[in-house]
Amino acid sequence: MGCECVDEYDNEDVRKLIERPEKPAVKSPRYRSRHASRTIREIARSKSAHKTLGQPRVPLKPPSAYLRKGEGPRPRRSKSSHKHYRPPDYARQLPDWKAAKRPARGAPGDLPDLPRDPREGRRSAGQLDFCRRNVEGVAEHRNAKVQSIKFCDTRHGDRQELRPSGLQLTYVHKKNYGRVPRFVKASRDDRKRSAAAASQRDRSQAGLPTGCVYLTEDQRAKLLESMKVKRASLMKTFQCLPFVIDTAPKIKRKAALEDKLKQVEKDIELFESHPYIFVYNE
């Protein structure tokens, strides 16, 4: 009996050695109607019409036909068969009023006088009646109560307050409208006073020679203070010089500082000894 050998590589295929990647499944495009954009616009345009359960169809009245007293809707009375029972001797109307006569003073049955307010005698002409003033203030406040007026600014019925909107003239009805404010008057008065002081100073300096200016007390004090500050700075610089001065630049710098200190001290002494100082414009 013969033996038949089958080789396992007989069915080998070179094209299947490298596996190909699986292609992803491509879904079909989603259906979109060609009327989608038009439908969205129509829904957005008619959305506000359903906020009040449909658009009103009642014809609008003109401004002259505003609602007057007694023309509004009245509540319906419930029909009741109840009848109020009245006794046979029930008075249909009040009896006639008759004024009671007060008996003469001193007669029997005379009523005593009403007690007077003890504060009434202590009130003088300069004191205020706070109770009466409060009552009058409350009455004026009630009478001056202003109702809030509103106006409709959109076709959907949105309402706004009329007074803060700026559509009603309120500023021109103020008491101080058209008047100059106090701070403007104060600034004008200050400018006038400064101008008068300057003119007075010019008149006082009219007798001085030409090119000469008189220094006021404030100006003299400011100049004196600035010279003292300069003297202090020069003195500090002079004290920082080295002990050994053996070169020409050091000697020159020391001499310059000494000259400046002498000049500043001379000017300070001049300003302190003479209260009236005149400066020439040269």
TrEMBL record:
<dbReference type="InterPro" id="IPR027012">
    <property type="entry name" value="Enkurin_dom"/>
</dbReference>
<protein>
    <recommendedName>
        <fullName>Enkurin domain-containing protein</fullName>
    </recommendedName>
</protein>
<dbReference type="GO" id="GO:0005856">
    <property type="term" value="C:cytoskeleton"/>
</dbReference>
<dbReference type="GO" id="GO:0005929">
    <property type="term" value="C:cilium"/>
</dbReference>
<feature type="compositionally biased region" description="Basic residues">
    <location>
        <begin position="75"/>
        <end position="85"/>
    </location>
</feature>
<keyword id="KW-0963">Cytoplasm</keyword>
<dbReference type="InterPro" id="IPR052102">
    <property type="entry name" value="Enkurin_domain-protein"/>
</dbReference>
<keyword id="KW-0966">Cell projection</keyword>
<feature type="compositionally biased region" description="Basic residues">
    <location>
        <begin position="29"/>
        <end position="38"/>
    </location>
</feature>
<keyword id="KW-0206">Cytoskeleton</keyword>
<feature type="region of interest" description="Disordered">
    <location>
        <begin position="20"/>
        <end position="126"/>
    </location>
</feature>
<feature type="domain" description="Enkurin">
    <location>
        <begin position="187"/>
        <end position="279"/>
    </location>
</feature>
<feature type="compositionally biased region" description="Basic and acidic residues">
    <location>
        <begin position="113"/>
        <end position="123"/>
    </location>
</feature>
<dbReference type="Pfam" id="PF13864">
    <property type="entry name" value="Enkurin"/>
</dbReference>
